[in-house]
């Protein structure tokens, strides 16, 4: 569903990604972790063309992200993205946040978009909040709206970039629970997070990045197992967060 082939990227003369290769199959959940500044956000942003890359290839469901004729708005609408900061439209109600792109980008009828929005709000436990504005919701609630908004586009995969790291601790689980449900329902997911409880529960694989490179890419069992193969950098990182 998502494939990175020898992807490298520079900001000016600074190389931020070095020869990154990995793939996420349909229905697979891959957790990406690693120190701050290691390139995690950049890697997932390249996957839906929020950031260009200079070398290698990225394929999303058979479409080459970097190829000249690729329809980027269409590609982006097929990949749900959830960021650390919720990035809802502050001047629109929750329901408008959920329906706007369905109508504008997918060309859905308003009544269908609202219906889909209602179903998704129910799914993330926020049916009572449809007419509120984002600023009237807690951070955890806003993040659940952001997930629902991404799902409203019927994405083939979801990318998450530290979706819980800006939340107060008591709100982390309500967001992780929604993500765990999604994973269990078979959504293809690439999740940058340091929530190792989430990784243990639903990840199929764990990627560890350091200094712009994918240093480890292995099964969850291998990653959390006490293997000799563990790189020193990953050992150090894990010793700090576990
Ligand atoms: P992570 O998400 O793992 O913390 P990022 O992908 O955000 O890492 O950043 C990787 C590196 O790229 C960092 O050194 C960061 O300072 C640098 N970087 C990120 N965005 C830009 C940018 N727009 N211009 C220049 N350097 C950037
Ligand atoms: Mg980041």
UniProtKB/TrEMBL annotation:
<dbReference type="GO" id="GO:0015424">
    <property type="term" value="F:ABC-type amino acid transporter activity"/>
</dbReference>
<dbReference type="InterPro" id="IPR017871">
    <property type="entry name" value="ABC_transporter-like_CS"/>
</dbReference>
<feature type="domain" description="ABC transporter">
    <location>
        <begin position="2"/>
        <end position="236"/>
    </location>
</feature>
<keyword id="KW-0029">Amino-acid transport</keyword>
<dbReference type="GO" id="GO:0005886">
    <property type="term" value="C:plasma membrane"/>
</dbReference>
<keyword id="KW-0067">ATP-binding</keyword>
<keyword id="KW-0472">Membrane</keyword>
<dbReference type="InterPro" id="IPR003439">
    <property type="entry name" value="ABC_transporter-like_ATP-bd"/>
</dbReference>
<keyword id="KW-1003">Cell membrane</keyword>
<dbReference type="GO" id="GO:0005524">
    <property type="term" value="F:ATP binding"/>
</dbReference>
<keyword id="KW-0547">Nucleotide-binding</keyword>
<dbReference type="Pfam" id="PF00005">
    <property type="entry name" value="ABC_tran"/>
</dbReference>
<keyword id="KW-0813">Transport</keyword>
<dbReference type="InterPro" id="IPR003593">
    <property type="entry name" value="AAA+_ATPase"/>
</dbReference>
<protein>
    <submittedName>
        <fullName>Arginine transporter ATP-binding subunit</fullName>
    </submittedName>
</protein>
<comment type="similarity">
    <text>Belongs to the ABC transporter superfamily.</text>
</comment>
<dbReference type="InterPro" id="IPR050086">
    <property type="entry name" value="MetN_ABC_transporter-like"/>
</dbReference>
<dbReference type="InterPro" id="IPR030679">
    <property type="entry name" value="ABC_ATPase_HisP-typ"/>
</dbReference>
<dbReference type="GO" id="GO:0016887">
    <property type="term" value="F:ATP hydrolysis activity"/>
</dbReference>
<dbReference type="InterPro" id="IPR027417">
    <property type="entry name" value="P-loop_NTPase"/>
</dbReference>
């Amino acid at each position: 569903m998502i494939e990175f082939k020898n992807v490298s990227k520079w900001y000016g003369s600074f190389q931020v990604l070095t020869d990154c290769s990995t793939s996420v199959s349909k229905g697979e959940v891959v957790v990406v972790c690693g120190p701050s500044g290691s390139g995690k956000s950049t890697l997932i942003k390249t996957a839906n063309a929020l950031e260009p890359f200079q070398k290698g290839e990225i394929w999303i469901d058979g479409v080459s992200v970097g190829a000249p004729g690729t329809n980027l708005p269409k590609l982006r609408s097929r990949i749900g993205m959830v960021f650390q900061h919720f990035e809802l439209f502050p001047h629109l109600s929750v329901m408008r946040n959920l329906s706007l792109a369905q109508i504008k980008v997918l060309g859905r009828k308003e009544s269908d978009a609202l219906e889909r929005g209602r179903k998704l709000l129910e799914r993330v436990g926020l049916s009572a909040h449809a007419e509120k504005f984002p600023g009237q919701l807690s951070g955890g609630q806003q993040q659940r709206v952001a997930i629902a908004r991404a799902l409203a586009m019927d994405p083939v995969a979801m990318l998450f970039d530290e979706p819980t790291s800006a939340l107060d601790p008591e709100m982390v689980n309500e967001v992780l629970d929604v993500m765990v449900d999604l994973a269990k329902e078979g959504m293809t997911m690439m999740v940058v997070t340091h929530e190792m409880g989430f990784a243990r529960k639903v990840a199929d694989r764990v990627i560890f990045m350091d200094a712009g490179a994918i240093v480890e890419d292995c099964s969850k069992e291998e990653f959390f197992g006490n293997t000799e193969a563990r790189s020193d950098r990953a050992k150090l990182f894990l010793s700090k967060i576990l």
